[in-house]
Amino acid sequence: MSERNLHLVTGAAGFIGSHLVDRLLTAGHRVFGVDNFVRGNKENLRAARQHTGFAFLELDISDTAAFVAALNEVGGMIDVIWHLAANSDISAGGADAAIDLRDTFMTTYSVAQVCREYGVRKLAFSSTSAVYGDHGSIAVHEDIGPLFPISNYGAMKLASEACLTALSEAALDNLWLFRFPNVIGGRATHGVIYDFLDKLEKTPHELRVLGNGTQCKPYLYVDDLLDAILLIVERARDRINCFNIGPEDEGVLVRDIAEIVVDKACRNARILYGSEDRGWIGDIPRFRYAVDKIQALGWTPVCTSSREAVEKAVDAQVSERSGKSA
Ligand SMILES: NC(=O)c1ccc[n+]([C@@H]2O[C@H](COP(=O)([O-])OP(=O)(O)OC[C@H]3O[C@@H](n4cnc5c(N)ncnc54)[C@H](O)[C@@H]3O)[C@@H](O)[C@H]2O)c1
């Protein structure tokens, strides 16, 4: 069998996946990306496509047989799978449970089958704070339980974690479960800043906020997230390695995010709030992570607060949008 030196990234054309692809290529790895463009886009892969170490396949990987078959030539060379493909529209998954079954869970099941078929023994998975459910302002540790997610997205991510821990028993050397917070930055395909900027493009005089603006969550800049996951993969070498990743602070209010966006993008817009304390069914209005486990590995984010991360992400997205419209 050929040397295993290939990194497979699912969701490669998405927001975080495309940044990860660039980081892996810069570090000298060969990368095979796969995405069906349900949300990601070709523009996100512009830099990667210039690179000779990059190959890409457009495929719906919830079709397990098609995914396994498509990797026939490269499967034996895969060293690590970074599984990032998933549905990222949580409210859409609330309206139609089939979305998270297909894009969040079945994509994971397919990845597990690829590991079995081609003997891939290292797997990194992008999980989420949504697996915890609603714990109010309590700082949740990785080992809190039982876990009761309140969205189909959170449920299918938790089911994915379970599918992969079961796989690890027989077929993996290392499984990394990253529980991401809200991640923000340039190339976003969704999220609160993206939605606010979209709304302001359509109605520059007003910004309608989902919920009353008191939702409060931690936000991490994408570069800090990538530093964290690359460090975890380097230093955490148990069979199952589960980490919360996030800033230490209590987060930033949606009301503050709306004000920052309006200030930087559309100064005269009026901000209009809803009456509910959450944006949609399945939205967790406030959560907090305990992050001592990842801090003990030696990671601290460059953006020292959620607010700083928000400011930086709004700047990045405003500048991308003005580039597109120029
Ligand atoms: N951005 C965040 O705040 C955040 C928070 C927690 C967890 N996560 C997780 O991180 C990962 C990346 O998120 P993101 O923000 O970059 O989202 P994203 O939507 O930009 O990226 C996901 C990518 O997966 C692709 N995809 C979805 N279903 C697919 C399928 N069936 N076959 C092939 N490709 C498919 C999409 O086209 C998209 O490009 C996801 O697993 C997400 O659940 C993100």
What does this structure look like?
With 326 residues, this protein is α/β, with parallel strands linked by helices. The protein has eleven helices and 15 strands. The strands form five sheets. Strands 3-2-1-4-5-7-12 form a seven-stranded parallel β-sheet, sandwiched between helices. The longest helix has 22 residues, at 97-118. The structure holds nicotinamide-adenine-dinucleotide. Nicotinamide-adenine-dinucleotide (NAD) binds at residues 11, 13-17, 35-40, 60-62, 84-86, 88, 103, 107, 126, 128, 180, 182-183, 189-191.
* Helix/strand/pairing category: alpha/beta
The CATH topology of the largest domain comes to Rossmann fold
The 3D shape can be described as globular
CATH class type of the largest domain: Alpha Beta
User: SSE order in H/E notation?
Assistant: EHEHEHEHHEEHEEHEEEHEEHEEHH
**Roughly what percent helix?**
40-55%
Number of helices: 11
Radius of gyration, in Å, reads 19 Å
- How many domains, as an integer? 2
Order of strands in the sheet with the most strands? 3-2-1-4-5-7-12
- Second-tier CATH architecture of the largest domain: 3-Layer(aba) Sandwich
Largest sheet: 7 strands, parallel
Report how far apart the termini are: 50 Å
Portion in strands: 15-25%
**How many β-strands, per DSSP?**
15
CATH superfamily of the largest domain: NAD(P)-binding Rossmann-like Domain
